[in-house]
């Protein structure tokens, strides 16, 4: 490092207009709600806190000022994979960006330092541990820094599993570089964390932008869990090879399910913290590049997933909090196209998860976890619009039901359940209240099993009285009877079902009983995710193949070349020359130069043939 080519640290000046940068570099004609004001705050030297949901367009908020200002923007990012992803995307846009972390060797790091000191870089991505090193801060003080951007700023929070101790020390940057504005960004919707961010980073009178946390393109569905593996495989078959994530609570289950899906002939891989770094990296990269369609994972698969075309996120088990549920489901549909969030729910899981909390020793922590889970449990059990509950939980009041969740699309119906309740209750009674759910369902359905024969239960008067209904139907009815307090489960006796006092009146026919009609098969209406574009599907398929080829040649994920939306718009507008190509949203100057020729060629070819 030499001091000779070090520019004088002076305040950055605005050298280019934000709107021009948005168009020429990113290829977009308009700012999204909130972006412009946040950008202006940064240009005016003000600190800011940007709260936008995943896919809301946070990166543009600091990348545009980075290009508008004369100096360097330093982006603090928690994960190598995130840095790499952002830098590849910026480089594809023709922006001088780099990251520095321990995945680079000494020479590579030296090279980047040289570029920095010669003023060749506009954005530098760096991990919090690195930026706080004394030597690194010294280096920064010789540069003209225009902005600090703190990405994934919720990493300051002790509660989430993304906690990173060094994030709490980033206020040191604020102290050392008092004149440089700092922008913190996060997709976290919970209030306590927002407060923490301002405090811990030491933001000075920040401009705060809070966008709506609604993700209108995500359809929320909660499905009763009957035979989850069969439900899952049925669902996956309908998905026509689209990308998705399946979350399970344990590593063992992750491995099991991934294997079952692969056995069914689908392209799936497992991901959890018990695997080596290399294995995990392999899966994550394969997923980003569309080489792996489905990842079955624990919550360890998270923050680094920047893939915009994840079409579904499925929770095989109930998550521990609404915060995690929202964050995990939020990984679907970053590109704004239709996506699905599905959760399998067995009411008995509530008790199972609660028992798990008993092992948490720290009293305060246990209470917080319990409270958070209680909110999740009541969300799962509720029978009203899913989105309304979610958004209300994050203090975003919604008056109208959303029209895009399972409850809105297929409203629960009730029916006179007196007869089926009597059948179920008397079956429990005849079997001497010694058996659990599964066995009672078999009895009702008149199953021919050795266990039933050994117990001589095929001779009971209630044996087979419910054979006209499916097992799923009876399971749902029995669960409702538990929920309504007519049956209880004795967990000391293998969860044997017992009649409660209330059951007697039903059996005697003293009351009619309203029950919810079991929702046996959630309807997953397959949606064309690009239906908003009136595009040519054959051309789209050709362009998609071309994109993959170009991406593989450049060793980047396909979305770095163009995202699905841009591709669909191309297959709609069918540009045949440069100026038409530039009109496609997502095409800026660099991408025109880099990819215009092969794509225009493909389109012209296609038009000539058809
Ligand atoms: P976040 O970081 O908030 O999850 P991104 O910054 O990755 O979101 O943006 C999500 C997508 O929206 C990206 O494909 C991005 O290029 C696109 N995008 C951002 N701003 C705009 C805009 N003003 N117009 C059109 N698309 C935009
Ligand atoms: Zn709804």
Q: How does the SSE layout of this entry go?
A:
Elements: H1 18-26, H2 35-43, E1 48-51, H3 58-68, E2 72-76, H4 80-92, E3 97-100, H5 106-117, E4 123-126, H6 128-131, H7 134-141, E5 145-150, H8 171-176, E6 182-186, H9 191-201, E7 207-210, E8 218-224, H10 228-238, E9 244-247, H11 251-263, E10 268-271, H12 277-288, E11 294-297, E12 312-315, H13 322-329, E13 339-345, H14 348-357, H15 363-381, H16 386-393, H17 406-409, E14 414-416, H18 418-430, H19 437-445, H20 450-454, H21 471-483, E15 487-490, E16 496-499, H22 501-507, E17 514-516, H23 537-554, H24 558-561, H25 564-573, H26 578-582, H27 589-609
Helix pairs in contact: 2-3, 14-15, 18-19, 19-21, 23-25, 23-27
The protein binds adenosine-5'-diphosphate and zinc ion.
Features:
single chain, 610 residues, alpha/beta, 7-stranded parallel sheet, 27 helices, 17 strands, 45% helix, globular, binds adenosine-5'-diphosphate, binds zinc ion
Structure summary:
45% of the residues lie in helices and 12% in strands. It has 27 helices and 17 strands. Zinc ion is lined by residues 385-387, 401-402, 405, 407-408.
